[in-house]
Amino acid sequence: MPTMKDAASDFLSSKRIAVTGVSREPASHGSNIVYQRLRERGYEVFAVNPNAEQVEGDPAFDDLASIPGGVEAVVIGTRPETAMETVKECAELGIKRVWMHRGFGGGSVSAAAAEFGRANGLEVIDGGCPLMFDPTADGGHKVMRWMLTLTGNVPKQV
Questions:
Q1: CB–CB of 48/63 below 8 Å?
Q2: Bridge partners of residue 123, in order along the sequence
Q3: What confidence tens digit (pLDDT) does each residue in 21-33 have?
Q4: Regarding the domain with residue range 4-151, which homologous superfamily does it belong to in the CATH classification?
Q5: How many CA atoms lie within 13 A of 54 on its CB side?
Q6: Terminal CA-to-CA distance of the chain, rounded, Å?
């Protein structure tokens, strides 16, 4: 099993990343924060929200299959009940890197979806946030990573 740091580095080496659960009302929604930061750091990022035509000033896509040219990785920022559907779509489309976002609380992590993904050859990170690791990290997220690793919300290995 790779360490969390190695898995995060591998995930963040992707250049085209989809983020599910990006909201039309960004206020302080976790998926929107991830989406914005990835975009700021130069990633080609795609918002997935079947209930919106546009989010964060960019086009929104109904699903992963709708993204022109596909993506290399996906951040799941929806409720855990919908994670399995997204992981299955990743497997069907050949998207090998999946990150189930989790800060405080349960986040988007689904144990069944993580198990399914791994059984189907996907690299699944089941916890934490891409913004906790370089090159996307900031001081606040690094402190959160330390705290959430202690509580188990950021796995030590994936």
A1: yes
A2: 97
A3: 998 876 666 789 9
A4: NAD(P)-binding Rossmann-like Domain (3.40.50.720)
A5: 3
A6: 6
